[in-house]
Amino acid sequence: MNSARFAALQAGDADRITVGSAADFAQLDTLVREECNPDTSECTEVNPDGVLRVVKPLIQLARTDLGMNEAIPEDSPFVGSGKLDGEGVPLNFFADVHIRRAFNYCFDYDTYIKDVQFGEAVRSLALTLPGQAGYDGSPIFEYDLAKCEEEFKAAELKTEDGTQGVMDIGFYMQLGYNVGNTARQTMAEILAANLSQVNQLFLINPVALPWPTYLRVVRVKHLPIAVAGWQEDIHDPHNWYVPYIVTTYGSRFNISKDLLDKYTPLINSGATETDQAKRATIYSELNQMIHDDAVYIIMPVATTRNYQPLYVNGWLGGTSQNPLVSGPGAVYELSKDNVMK
User: Fold this and answer.
1) pLDDT, tens digit, for every residue of 70-117?
2) Going from the N-terminus, what domains does the chain have, and what CATH number goes with each?
3) pTM of structure
4) Of 14, 28, 190, 238, which is least packed with CB atoms within 10 Å of its CB?
């Protein structure tokens, strides 16, 4: 964390500072007097000498997931030979549902939460956010190398002569990420390491790309597997299903027409239904389908915290606490005492 920011907050010269990442929470915690629950607004004193209150955990309105490209273009430089020959992957590699399920089982979600998100995250049940219609009770994949291997054995992909499958011959591909994004780098490394445990012939090579290059190869659909990141515009499930399935990422990952034909009626029905209970039923069915088809590797949803000096009033429990309100919230609702308590 920037030392000048921290010092200003500690001295009461700054009413709010921007925190770099969850890695900075430990330093800020040394200044905390009160820990507050965002749902009940109840606070507990943890350090009588502290000068801040922290409100936690707060669910972020953004998420990052891994998408698998079901129809990789022939000119992609990230698929090796472009064949199932041990030196690449065929362009329809992720069109096989068993391959997609295997990748889901091979990701260690708990390690990602612990080592990358510093424990500040929760397992995600769907492509939407906790609390939204249809979210609760949706199924998830657990990290399970035995099931990962079973799915690879069940895959229908064969070598050109039809004599060997993916477990026999192995594969090679590259997983690109933007330079400096250590979270995405670690995501790729976790997946690569776990796949190699299932079969030493499974090789994923994480590749760091300059940001402009990374954007270009994602948009022209060259990457066989890549990150999907979104921040909601409207707090509603529809704002997640449309970009992930129908438009932005649905297009970039070439979700098949068969899957789109299956999902789209439910997406449309959920958008037009006004009864929230019925919407929950629709989206629960959709979440089950997306899980069974393993369209994405659904990653944990990060949580965050709000740190504020004790002399700032009006955020906790007020409408300015609404996470859809950017920055410090509805500033006109906030006030502060003349001196720090």
Assistant:
1) 999 999 999 999 999 999 999 999 999 999 999 999 999 999 999 999
2) 3-60+311-336 (no CATH), 63-301 (3.10.105.10)
3) 0.89
4) 14
